[in-house]
Specification:
single chain, 3 helices
């Protein structure tokens, strides 16, 4: 059921993106943030994952904080993660997917990372 809902959302977004491009074909890459040119989808998702882990660690640090100033500093860092950095990564992922749909380009790439215990395809 969840997979079917995800598939439905993907089809909807794909059709919406293609319709927008048909209406305004010159606007294909105008909205892409600068860092998308050097990051792949996998690298951007990896950065988003690291950001979430960092946020969880900051939230855990709040529990161990001993002063109001320390708590305020940690909360400011969480705000930076969730209100500034996370939306940029999410927007970058959306833009890369939209651009791949518009240009017919695949998002799959060869991985050069080596993780112990996992077979590379």
């Amino acid at each position: 059921m969840i997979a079917e809902k995800i598939e439905e959302i993907i089809k909807y977004q794909t059709n919406r993106t293609l319709s927008e491009l048909e209406e305004n074909p010159t606007n294909r890459t105008a909205d892409l943030p600068q860092f998308i040119e050097t990051d792949s989808l996998g690298e951007t998702v990896e950065k988003l994952t690291i950001l979430h882990i960092r946020t969880w660690m900051l939230e855990d640090a709040i529990q161990a904080a001993t002063s109001d100033k320390e708590i305020a500093d940690l909360k400011r860092k969480i705000d930076i993660c969730f209100k500034i950095k996370r939306p940029k990564y999410v927007a970058a992922i959306n833009a890369m997917v939209d651009n791949a749909i518009a240009t017919g380009r695949l998002l799959k790439e060869d991985s050069v990372k080596l993780y112990k215990g996992l077979d590379n395809e």
